[in-house]
């Protein structure tokens, strides 16, 4: 008779999985601390390196390199197994942190950010594949809940710790202080990686054109993201060119039918990008509006973002306990909650609005993200043949990145074009109204695809 697992052993902390769970949470926590800390330290970094004109490039370079690493890491996971790319990515990420910590100038720092980006993209997609191999399908929602929970402490304390290090020690500790801990995470993950990270028994062979498409996607992401941070016709033209480069690349990098919202895998990949794009586009202008229209201090204006992170964690944990609902329904619910959050912004952010509403509405929107983002990951892994898990997980991450880059960039164009000297944030209200309409429309699209999915 087979042994019956006790509830305490049946999910994340079963003896065969606890080391992997601990390593997963530690590594994602460190990646999150680095992501939260860089933004805080960046003004000091560019000032000390005398590179203010390069302000956005450490972020842009990391994003583009992440797109490249995600695709290449997914390809390696499908052909050689997830162990090799993960075990290369972890020390490489640590090396990138060390290079950044000792960078004497901006070019060296950008090289370090490229190393971190490629390693980080490879790391995330490899962990997605390993989650499918380490945890039984019924426990994967809990694994993604734990992954989301790993962002809580960095969201709460990452900017503060990075600020204190930058002010009282050096910004270099924001990078260098994490490198030994990344290696500790690698040690925790090694046993499970060796046990579960072998190549799939059956492979579909390398997909033609994915490597050139990966480089095209990285170039397109860089162009779109760079354009989104500038208000000029040449920048916007470059952004349009980036989108033109991206479209044929996406046809190679996404499951067939993604751009047509076909049921199954395609709608989950598309939904991930739309959900991330809607949420982060609205969030991008929350601190600006609170500062300009309501006189909040920069520190206070960032608090709603932390509140949203807490909601995200709650939503991710809630979805881990929902087994009777189809994942399309949960993703649609995520869109609805993000839409409700945008509705709250309509009444909170304008000068005539009730500013404190932003804290409640962004908690609701963050909860929707926790439900929706985790559910797309669970659905994609459940519907992916073993030989395609890397490719499909990479597609999910690429969709996430592009959704943010394209929609945040478009939102920046709207806000900039409607801004006036008297009201620099006049465009935020029309933007939030547009997002409020788009969210339920996307929810309806996901639900329709779910009803068309064969049962």
UniProtKB/TrEMBL annotation:
<feature type="transmembrane region" description="Helical">
    <location>
        <begin position="110"/>
        <end position="131"/>
    </location>
</feature>
<feature type="transmembrane region" description="Helical">
    <location>
        <begin position="171"/>
        <end position="190"/>
    </location>
</feature>
<keyword id="KW-0812">Transmembrane</keyword>
<feature type="transmembrane region" description="Helical">
    <location>
        <begin position="20"/>
        <end position="42"/>
    </location>
</feature>
<feature type="domain" description="Major facilitator superfamily (MFS) profile">
    <location>
        <begin position="20"/>
        <end position="455"/>
    </location>
</feature>
<feature type="transmembrane region" description="Helical">
    <location>
        <begin position="211"/>
        <end position="228"/>
    </location>
</feature>
<feature type="transmembrane region" description="Helical">
    <location>
        <begin position="143"/>
        <end position="165"/>
    </location>
</feature>
<feature type="transmembrane region" description="Helical">
    <location>
        <begin position="274"/>
        <end position="293"/>
    </location>
</feature>
<feature type="transmembrane region" description="Helical">
    <location>
        <begin position="355"/>
        <end position="381"/>
    </location>
</feature>
<keyword id="KW-1133">Transmembrane helix</keyword>
<dbReference type="InterPro" id="IPR036259">
    <property type="entry name" value="MFS_trans_sf"/>
</dbReference>
<keyword id="KW-0472">Membrane</keyword>
<feature type="transmembrane region" description="Helical">
    <location>
        <begin position="234"/>
        <end position="254"/>
    </location>
</feature>
<feature type="transmembrane region" description="Helical">
    <location>
        <begin position="330"/>
        <end position="349"/>
    </location>
</feature>
<dbReference type="Pfam" id="PF07690">
    <property type="entry name" value="MFS_1"/>
</dbReference>
<protein>
    <submittedName>
        <fullName>MFS transporter</fullName>
    </submittedName>
</protein>
<dbReference type="InterPro" id="IPR011701">
    <property type="entry name" value="MFS"/>
</dbReference>
<dbReference type="InterPro" id="IPR005829">
    <property type="entry name" value="Sugar_transporter_CS"/>
</dbReference>
<feature type="transmembrane region" description="Helical">
    <location>
        <begin position="402"/>
        <end position="422"/>
    </location>
</feature>
<dbReference type="InterPro" id="IPR020846">
    <property type="entry name" value="MFS_dom"/>
</dbReference>
<feature type="transmembrane region" description="Helical">
    <location>
        <begin position="428"/>
        <end position="447"/>
    </location>
</feature>
<feature type="transmembrane region" description="Helical">
    <location>
        <begin position="54"/>
        <end position="72"/>
    </location>
</feature>
<feature type="transmembrane region" description="Helical">
    <location>
        <begin position="299"/>
        <end position="318"/>
    </location>
</feature>
<feature type="transmembrane region" description="Helical">
    <location>
        <begin position="84"/>
        <end position="104"/>
    </location>
</feature>
């Amino acid at each position: 008779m087979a042994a019956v697992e006790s509830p305490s052993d049946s999910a994340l902390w079963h003896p065969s999985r606890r080391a992997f769970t601990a390593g997963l949470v530690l590594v994602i926590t460190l990646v999150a601390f680095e992501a939260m800390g860089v933004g805080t330290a960046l003004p000091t970094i560019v000032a000390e390196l005398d590179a203010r004109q390069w302000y956005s490039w450490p972020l842009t370079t990391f994003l583009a390199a992440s797109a490249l690493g995600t695709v290449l890491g997914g390809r390696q996971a499908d052909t050689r197994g997830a162990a090799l790319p993960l075990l290369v990515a972890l020390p490489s990420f640590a090396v990138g942190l060390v290079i950044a910590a000792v960078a004497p100038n901006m070019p060296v720092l950008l090289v370090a950010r490229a190393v971190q980006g490629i390693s980080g993209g490879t790391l995330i997609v490899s962990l997605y594949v390993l989650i499918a191999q380490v945890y039984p399908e019924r426990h994967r929602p809990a694994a993604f809940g734990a992954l989301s929970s790993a962002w809580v402490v960095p969201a709460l304390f990452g900017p503060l710790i990075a600020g204190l290090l930058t002010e009282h020690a050096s910004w270099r500790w924001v990078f260098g202080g994490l490198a030994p801990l990344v290696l500790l995470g690698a040690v925790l993950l090694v046993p499970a990686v060796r046990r579960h990270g072998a190549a799939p028994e059956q492979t579909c062979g390398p997909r033609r054109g994915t490597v050139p498409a990966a480089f095209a996607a990285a170039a397109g992401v860089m162009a779109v993201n760079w354009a989104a941070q500038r208000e000029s016709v040449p920048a916007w033209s470059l952004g349009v060119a980036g989108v033109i480069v991206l479209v044929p690349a996406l046809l190679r990098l996404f499951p067939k039918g993604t751009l047509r919202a076909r049921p199954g895998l395609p709608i989950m990949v598309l939904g991930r990008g739309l959900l991330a794009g809607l949420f982060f586009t609205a969030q991008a202008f929350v601190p600006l509006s609170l500062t300009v229209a309501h006189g909040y201090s920069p520190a206070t204006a960032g608090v709603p973002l932390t509140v949203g992170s807490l909601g995200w964690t709650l939503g991710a944990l809630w979805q881990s306990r929902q087994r009777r609902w189809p994942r399309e329904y949960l993703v649609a619910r995520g869109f609805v909650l993000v839409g409700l959050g945008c509705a709250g912004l309509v009444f909170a952010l304008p000068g005539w609005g009730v500013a404190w509403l932003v804290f409640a509405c962004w908690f609701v929107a963050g909860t929707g993200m926790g439900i929706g983002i985790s559910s797309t990951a669970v659905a994609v892994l459940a519907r992916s043949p073993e030989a395609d898990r890397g490719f499909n997980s990479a597609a999910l991450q690429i969709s996430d990145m592009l959704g943010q880059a394209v929609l945040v960039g478009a939102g920046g164009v709207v806000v900039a074009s409607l801004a006036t000297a008297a009201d620099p944030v006049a465009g935020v209200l029309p933007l939030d109204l547009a997002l409020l309409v788009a969210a339920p429309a996307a929810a309806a699209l996901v639900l329709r695809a779910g009803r068309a999915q064969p049962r």
